[in-house]
Design brief:
The complex is a heterodimer of chains A (233) and B (553). Chain A has one domain: Cytochrome c oxidase, subunit III, four-helix bundle (Four Helix Bundle (Hemerythrin (Met), subunit A)). Helix content of chain A is 70%, strand content 3%. Chain A is built from seven helices and two strands. Chain B is mainly alpha-helical and 553 residues long. Chain B has one domain (21-551): Cytochrome c oxidase-like, subunit I domain (Cytochrome C Oxidase, Chain A, Up-down Bundle), CATH 1.20.210.10. Helices cover 63% and strands 2% of the residues of chain B. Chain B has helices at residues 21-26, 31-59, 70-89, 92-100, 102-105, 114-133, 152-155, 160-187, 200-232, 245-279, 286-299, 315-343, 352-375, 377-383, 387-417, 423-449, 464-494, and strands at 419-420, 496-497, 535-536, 539-540, 544-545, 550-551. Chain B has a two-stranded antiparallel sheet with strand order 1-2. A two-stranded antiparallel sheet of chain B has the order 3-4. Chain B has a two-stranded antiparallel sheet with strand order 5-6. Classes of the chains: A mainly alpha (233), B mainly alpha (553). Chains A and B meet through helix 2 and helix 6 of A and helix 8, helix 9, helix 10 and strand 6 of B.
Chain lengths: 233, 553
């Protein structure tokens, strides 16, 4: 049971060695480094998960090289590039927010979290515009163009490329939405006084999460938008 | 005398402070109670899968169709595999003893994230329900085998998607368990206990947790890609659409081969606890056992290709994977020699757990060495997908992991319940299991060598004798299993009461103030300035005052 619910501070136990020396025992309660370590490990699982998808993508790039280049050239580098910049700035605001929290500036930290959330929404909006355009062009999961074996279907390599594109950007977008939810929760915890400059593990971990989200995008962007940039269209 | 963790009210809960005993169990965040609940659930699933297997054995008693048709048989071995792998043996040792014993061994009050632990248990239950739900909906349970190989899994109309979703959810539960244990082992060890003072079971759990953490996401996303492929047909693993089914096999085994080390490493940890305790000797080569766990976890990542020797891979890749597979046998061999050397000149106490451990030495050596024969590319071309392979992995998994899980059940039973089972009956049950097991699986090596393929519901008449011996072996084995669980379950309430250190063992989980232990474990956290298995002339060296947890030797 955490100390919060018992209404008193957690007092670490002391272990005494045979020579009488006393050692503070680390409990699971209020373990800042444990919380950090746990979340870093969780981030590692995300890296492995997206890593496996990049592996798949790379392999199919080698099998269907020309189709991938051709399909990639249809994307708007401007929209994708804008989104990359937006996400990188949001990483900055998130980081600044954490620095402000550590420095004791709770109000500044909250402002930065709001800024991050707005940038995340901008990212989603641009992504939405892109997906809608794709949909109107007939390029979307489940549409005939992306189903092999009918008159409208694209070449197999392009179907694979777009299939992986919607899968990976979809999963990435899901992480963004999750991130916005996490930030809302963080704001609630800050307002309730549960996250403070002295006890900000939640803020730290959500900032870490956000770094992972933009890190993945930094690889998604060149792989989908850049490989075909400058080819026709 | 402190109150036992099993008594009503003696638990912390994830939400609130429920009065009802039922909700106290459902919401408990106590690692010991969560471990017991895992045990109850996974052994229930174990018996379900055992009886599915028995059905298949009955079908195989004679050539031709008996009680199952071919399609149902395909669903039966898939159900058997999915339950045994995802619901029983992967959670297996970590979920039960990693939860119950590991925090006790390092002197912790609980795992690092007790609420996450609670959540993980229910995530596991949720995944299990999804898997089982596909039994009664749509076209019935998947018929692909537990490996879900593409492209068949993409084309069959059975409930593959449901099973894949279940495997994904169960994978998440496994990841979170591993994460929790890693942080626990890094952060909550008692003062003074460095990594080389940890009991070897903790080393096993530690190595396993890394595999759970790093390998499971790969299979998770592979299953997601397979689901998307089934729903949207974008061709990821479908050769008719420009995809590559061998890629599925690679991605699948990148997880699923390390997964067998995930199963066996904590089981080896149980062996490393039992052997020194009942030889009354300090374990031989502590560091080599500990580091071999770590190196098995590491090398185990690099051997997955040996599942694909007949699937289409370059000869160079085959040679490398074959070499690495031989190589991973070395740390395993080191462990075995260490255990044998520990027993040498020890005072061997032939208790039930020791009997199980020694039995496992026989069965796992057979399972392990036959694994080395099929790591040879040439031999594997002949033996791939035959009963030889089936016998190999059952000797390694059932005769290794599950036997050691049973050994652990007998070893930690007095710790968990403060009571002792009837050793005479428990030993008799062991012999039923051991003899039945060998009778069941050994003929399969011969049948497989002669060409009996796995996963067939019909066979040529010349294989009948092997199937019939197996069938009678299965009857003996199941009798032994029921016998064993009857002995154990009846002892929970009726067994003779015993003290906290029934076996005269040395590690910290035996230095508790009472049996069964109280809610928050040790009365005080000890300072650990001793190695885990110190015996002198057959007696434990380290003694504690259980009130103050100060050393008094």
């Amino acid at each position: 049971m955490s100390h919060e619910e018992h209404g008193h501070e957690y007092v670490p136990e002391i272990a005494t060695a045979r020579d009488g020396k006393q050692y503070e025992v680390q409990g699971w309660q209020g373990d800042f480094y444990g919380g950090k370590l746990g979340f870093w490990l969780f981030m590692l699982t995300e890296v492995m998960m997206f890593g496996a998808m990049f592996l798949t993508l790379t392999y199919y790039f080698s099998l269907h090289h020309d189709d991938f280049i051709e399909a990639s050239s249809e994307f708007s580098v401007l929209l994708g590039g804008t989104n990359t910049v937006v996400l990188l700035i949001s990483a900055l605001t998130m980081g600044l927010g954490l620095l402000k929290m550590r420095a004791g500036d709770v109000k500044g930290a909250k402002l930065m979290i709001y800024a991050t959330m707005i940038l995340a929404l901008v990212f989603l909006a641009i992504k939405g515009v892109e997906w809608t355009e794709d949909y109107h062009d007939g390029v979307f999961l489940g549409l005939p163009a992306l189903q092999a074996g009918n008159p409208d279907s694209r070449p197999l390599g392009e179907i694979l490329f777009f299939g992986m594109y919607f899968t990976m950007t979809g999963l990435h977008g899901f992480h963004i939405i999750l991130g916005i939810g996490l930030m809302l929760w963080l704001l609630k915890r800050i307002n309730a006084g549960k996250v403070t400059p002295e006890h900000h593990i939640l803020h730290f971990n959500i900032a870490l999460y956000w770094d992972l989200v933009h890190l993945i995008w930094v690889f998604v962007f060149p792989y989908f938008y850049m490989i075909g940039a400058g080819h026709g269209h | 005398m402190s109150k036992s963790y099993l008594e009503a009210g003696e638990t912390h809960c994830a939400i609130g402070h429920p009065k009802s005993v039922f909700w106290q169990w459902m919401l408990t965040i106590d690692h010991k109670r969560i471990g017991l609940m895992y045990a109850a659930v996974i052994f229930t699933f174990f018996f379900v899968a055992v009886f599915v297997a028995l059905t298949m054995r009955i079908e195989l008693f004679a050539p031709g169709a008996q009680i199952l048709d071919g399609d149902t048989f395909n669903q039966a071995f898939t159900l058997h595999g999915v339950i045994m792998i995802f619901l029983f043996i992967i959670p297996g040792v970590p979920a039960v003893f990693g939860n119950i014993v590991m925090p006790l061994m390092i002197g912790a009050k609980d795992v690092s994230f007790p609420r996450l632990n609670w959540f993980t248990f229910w995530l596991y239950i949720f995944g299990a329900l999804i898997a089982l739900s596909s039994l009664w909906t749509g076209e019935g349970f998947a018929d692909t085998g537990w490996t879900f190989y593409a492209p068949y899994s993409l084309n069959t109309n059975t409930n593959v998607i449901t099973t894949l979703v279940a495997a994904f959810v169960l994978g998440m539960a496994s990841i979170l368990t591993g994460l929790n244990f890693l942080v626990t082992i890094h952060r909550l060890r008692a003062p003074g206990m460095d990594f080389f003072k940890m009991p070897l079971f903790v080393w096993g759990i530690y190595a396993t947790a890394w595999i759970q953490l790093l390998a499971t996401p790969v299979v998770g996303i592979t299953l997601v890609l397979a689901i998307l492929e089934k729903v949207f047909g974008i061709g990821i693993f479908d050769p008719s659409k420009g995809g590559d089914p061998v890629l599925f096999e690679h991605l699948f085994w990148i997880y699923s081969h390390p997964a067998v080390y995930l199963m066996i490493l904590p089981a080896f940890g149980i062996m490393s606890e039992i052997i020194p305790t009942f030889s009354r000797r300090e374990v031989f080569g502590y560091r080599t056992i500990a580091l071999s766990s770590a190196s098995i976890a590491g090398i185990g990542y690099l051997v997955w290709g040996h599942h694909l020797f007949t699937s289409g891979m370059s000869d160079l890749a085959k040679t490398i994977f074959s070499f690495l597979t031989f190589f991973v046998a070395i740390p395993t061999g080191i462990k075995f020699y260490d255990w044998v050397a520990t027993m040498y000149k020890g005072q061997i106490h032939m208790t039930t757990p020791m009997l199980w451990a020694l039995g496992t030495m026989v069965t796992f050596v057979i399972g392990g060495l036959t694994g080395v024969t099929i790591a040879m590319i040439g031999a594997d071309i002949h033996l791939q997908d035959t009963y030889y392979t089936v016998a190999h992995f059952h000797y390694a998994m059932l005769g290794g992991v599950v036997f050691l899980l049973f050994a652990g059940l007998h070893y930690w039973f007095p710790l968990m319940f403060g009571r002792m089972y009837n050793e005479k009956h428990a030993k008799r049950a062991f012999w039923f299991n051991f003899i039945g097991f060998n009778m069941l699986w050994f003929p399969m090596f011969i049948a497989g060598y002669l060409g009996m393929p796995r996963r067939y519901f019909d066979y040529l008449p010349e294989f009948q004798i092997y199937h019939q011996i197996s069938f009678f072996g299965a009857l003996v084995f199941i009798t032994g299993l029921i016998y064993m669980f009857t002995v154990l379950i009846s002892a929970i309430k009726k067994g003779e009461k015993v003290g906290p250190n029934h076996w005269n063992a040395t590690t910290l989980e035996w230095h508790l103030p009472s049996a069964p232990p109280p809610l928050e474990n040790h009365s005080k956290v000890p300072y650990v300035d001793f190695r885990p298995y110190e015996y002198h002339h057959g007696d434990p060296v380290v003694k504690f005052n259980y009130e103050t947890m100060q050393r008094i030797d």
